[in-house]
Amino acid sequence: MKLRVLGVLSMLAIFIVIGVSSIILASASRELTQEVQINRVAALNRFAQVAYDAALDNDSTQLQREMDGYSALYGEGILVRLQQGTLRSGGLGEDRADVQDALSKASLNLSDTTIPALQPFGTDSKVIAKSFGTGSQVLGEAVLEVDLNAARQKLRDRWLVVGLAAFALGALLILAAERVTGWVLRPVHRLNAAVMELEATGRTSQLPEDGPPELRQLSRSFSAMAQTVSESMDSQRQLIADTSHELRNPVGALRLRIDLLQLELQTGAEKAAAAGVVAELERVEQILEGVLKLASAEHKAFEGSARGTGGPAPAALELIDPFPVLHGEVERAGPAALRTGASLILDAPPDPPAQLACNADELAHMMGELLTNAVKYAPGAHIEVAIRSGAGTVAIKVSDDGPGLSADERASSTTRFWRAPQHKHIRGNGLGMTIVDRLAEANGARLVLEERSPHGLVASIVFPSPAGGEATHG
Questions:
Q1: Residue 245 DSSP symbol
Q2: What is the CATH number of the domain that holds 269?
């Protein structure tokens, strides 16, 4: 944006400089042309008067002497045609076409003393002519050759001065445009960065008030709005967490009363009805537990984003070897996998051991959710857990050869309470992948879901390699 605005202002500055320079140069050309014309017409009038006197006295000695003196001094030729003969000086002769044309016009009493506007380059000269005589009779013609080289040199010197001044003015205007553009756009860039920060983290820092008055007011308004949005989001997260926590007590009491009631039931139908109520209560408890976990995960994710942890893991996290955490979670998920007929395999640890900047408990939580999903939604599948390192990343992968998810389903899987249509009959709350995604973000990582060939799902938690860490390849 800055380049576009600066480009427009620079072009405007260049057009202004060119316009002003053209006006100045045109004025200089007219001034020098007028100066030359006044001087040469005055000289021509002087020679016409002397020639008139010579024609009356029939003595051209004085005229010839003055013509020779002028030509020697200024290097310009003069030709005077009298009835008794033609006088010449400075090498100007009647053989030139422009001289013949000037003489023809002057013989008709048509004076030609106009000099065209000077141009800085060229070598041609100009002749001016004037007739002299009485009111009713032309006694002769005087022609003066005007050498324009000296005037052209003056004009070129002025062009050089104006050109240097124009260059300096243009550079100054462009520099001023750059400063003004930066002054105007700096608050815009800060505002854009603040919007992106607010979108990513839910909060933003106070914007400095600088730039034009309108942008200062916009910065104040945005800061107030961002603070309101941040407080509202914090209040919503806290409300969800508090509500979920407070609901656990009455749900627990209700569960106890139903358990006591079951002891008093006699018929099978009554016991079946009570079992259905217990199942629904368990579902409510599962949802409340998931909401609490999600609220905690989102809070940690927003804290991590507020510290600027969109890429590398937070510096406050210690480096850990993820393999022991994976080993513990695989062992914990083993009985559930055995009940569903799934095989759960943990690849050998990499050598040298991988290092991650991650909270060990949160990594265990993420792995537990991924393994639970794999066992629950891919019964009888072959489930593999591995650590894979690449260029600048360390990924923990949980892959299975179950039915998998489509591209649209993978894109929607981290949405709160989302369940795949084919899994509606399986118990769950649709929060597992959302929790993993938020916890991964809180630890500077990201959750990546990919299709496994020929079928199945690969869930990867991709961490950036710690600074100075070695990449291992599995």
A1: H
A2: 1.10.287.130
Strands (E) located in 15-56? none
pLDDT band at 176 (very low <50, low <70, confident <90, very high): confident
Does 198 reside within a domain?
Answer: no
SS3 387: strand
CA proximity to 203, closest of 164, 229, 236: 229
Per-residue confidence (pLDDT) for residue 36, from 0 to 100: 92
Q: Is residue 457 part of a domain?
A: yes
Contacts of 238 (CB under 8 A, 6+ apart): none
Compute φ and ψ for 358, nearest 5 degrees. -155, 150
| Coil vs helix vs strand at 133 | strand
Range(s) of the domain holding residue 375: 319-464
Answer with the residue of higher pLDDT: 207 or 355. 355
Same domain, 296 and 358: no
Q: Is residue 9 part of a domain?
A: yes
User: Binning pLDDT at 50, 70 and 90, where does residue 450 land?
Assistant: very high
Distances (CA, A) of 341 to 68, 329, 334, 394: 126, 18, 10, 30
pTM value is: 0.48
Digit-coded pLDDT (tens) for 212-232 = 787 778 777 877 877 777 777
How many domains does the chain fold into? 3
Domain annotation covers residue 474: no
- Supply 79's token pair: 């030709």
Q: What angle do CA 79, 85, 90 make, to 5 degrees?
A: 25
Q: Do residues 340 and 373 make contact, with C-beta atoms less than 8 angstroms apart?
A: no
Distance CA 186, CA 201 (A): 22
Q: How far apart are CA 101 and CA 98, in angstroms?
A: 5
If residue 76 lies in a helix (H) or strand (E), which one and from where to where?
none
Question: How many angstroms separate the CA atoms of 366 and 325, rounded?
Answer: 10
Q: 454 preceded by cis ω (within 30°)? A: yes
Residue 429 in tokens = 């709350």
d(CA 429, CA 286): 7
